[in-house]
Amino acid sequence: MGMSASQARLLSITARLSDNELKQQSLAYSKQRLSDNSEQINDAYLDALAKTKYQVLTGYNGTEACYADLTYNQITGLNSVAAGKQYLVKDNSGKVLVTAQVANAFKNNNGDFNRFLRDLGYTQSDIDVTKHTNSEDAIHNAWDEYLASVGKSINDLDSEHVLNFDYTAFSNDSYDGYATYSTAYAADANGVQTGLYKDSEGYYKERYLIQAREVRDENNNTEYVVGYQTEEMEGTDDWITLPDVSYNVETGKYSYSVTNEETNEQELVETDVLYASEDSDGNAVLSENYKNYLSFVGGNTYVDEGGNSYNVTVQSKALNFEGATTAQRELYDYAVSITEAYYNRKVSNTSQNLKYDAGIVNYYKNIFNEMRTSGYTTIANETNLKDNEWFVRQLKAGNLVLSYYSTVEKQFVGTTLDNDESITEKEDSSAMAIAEQVYQSAMDNIESQEKQYDLELNRLESEHNALQTEYDSVKSVISKNVEKTFNIFNA
């Protein structure tokens, strides 16, 4: 009976020893995996420390340079880069990448810059509409500059003479109308029409310029004949001579007699330039001023300084864009903008709430012109426009192309991530901070687990030693019992 109990005990101890050794081996493997994990965490940490990202220089805090992550929104924003350059992004087909807001402003207004600006909350009208004289002068100057750019004049538009400007609106909406110009012509008693001009003093006709012609008499001597040509005579040899006007070739002056109204005596007048108009009897009326002003009589009747009577007809016409270049279009759009602002100043409409900012207007003008010539595109997920990794990845892959506006070349020119002076590759401090936190947390966890494994291994080692001692003791007892039994039977 004792023999059987000892053997059962020995088998139990043997099983426990095997289980103990298995647990120790499993813990040893776990410690090895912790070591492997520690190496991987360390490698990831070192990679994070070496990680960089592209940033753009945004300004200076004293002498310290300030940078921001390179994103679409950051690089293309107004005054968002320290160098003051305006950047533009295109896709690989050459279309301008813009936000949905900018795309809609362009699409909904058929490429009209004033309306485009309006939908973005701005205007390019920079006049103070409360100052009437200044505003009207600015309007005339703006239209004069545009007309000159297309080879015309504010005083001569397709043989019609511009007198003043107005603005005809169809509704209270801003830019819902067109700029107009007034023309006038005069018809004399015979119905013959002649063009008119207008300045601050009123309507006027141009007088004929008097000239001195060199001729030779029957003795081949040189003399000068003074006269002029009417509009009908221009290009012919016809000439109206003025025998009462002489020309001094040495002084270059004309001289003629006038009656002094106070003394009723004749006085000699000398002048460098002389003009002539005709009175109602066809006689020449001399003047040093080329403008022959018309005086208002009544209705639409006027009379000039020579006593000629005219019926004056005034017409109003739309002034449409007739240019071909971007510069001409910009001049036209600006003239329309200030004309609309001034003539609609008393109307409560959208234009009254628009802001004027020269920098913003120029910023959008550059984008608008590029959209008009190159086309435009958008992206579905606009959150990517704020994403540094997405933007840099698209640039490196060639899906997007970066350019900036050159004030010298007056156009956008290409640039790259690695060649642009405002873009730099810097340590990713945020990634490094995160990596530091992850590394420290992981290593603390490994150290904690390793301590637990060591405690458990020590416990298992102590248990193993105790079991081994008991195993040896039971085995010794069994061995002595077997030896004693053999001795009894052999006796």
Description:
This protein has 491 residues and is α+β, with helices and mostly antiparallel strands. Among the domains are: 2-50 and 430-490; 52-112 and 381-427, no CATH class; 208-288, no CATH class. The protein is built from nine helices and 25 strands. Helix 1 runs antiparallel to helix 9. The mean pLDDT is 83.
Short structural description:
The protein has 491 residues and is of the alpha+beta class. It has helices at 2-49, 72-76, 100-107, 113-119, 132-149, 326-343, 358-374, 388-397, 429-490; strands spanning 52-61, 64-69, 87-91, 96-97, 162-169, 177-187, 193-195, 197-199, 202-206, 208-209, 211-216, 222-228, 240-241, 246-248, 253-259, 266-271, 275-278, 284-287, 291-298, 301-304, 309-318, 376-377, 400-406, 411-415, 423-427.
List keywords for this structure.
alpha+beta, 25 strands, three-stranded antiparallel beta sheet, eight-stranded antiparallel beta sheet, 491 residues, 9 helices, rod-shaped
Helix and strand topology:
Elements: H1 2-49, E1 52-61, E2 64-69, H2 72-76, E3 87-91, E4 96-97, H3 100-107, H4 113-119, H5 132-149, E5 162-169, E6 177-187, E7 193-195, E8 197-199, E9 202-206, E10 208-209, E11 211-216, E12 222-228, E13 240-241, E14 246-248, E15 253-259, E16 266-271, E17 275-278, E18 284-287, E19 291-298, E20 301-304, E21 309-318, H6 326-343, H7 358-374, E22 376-377, H8 388-397, E23 400-406, E24 411-415, E25 423-427, H9 429-490
Parallel strand pairs: 4-22
Antiparallel strand pairs: 1-2, 1-25, 3-23, 5-6, 6-7, 6-21, 8-9, 9-19, 10-17, 11-12, 12-13, 14-15, 15-16, 17-18, 19-20, 20-21, 23-24
Helix pairs in contact: 1-9, 5-6
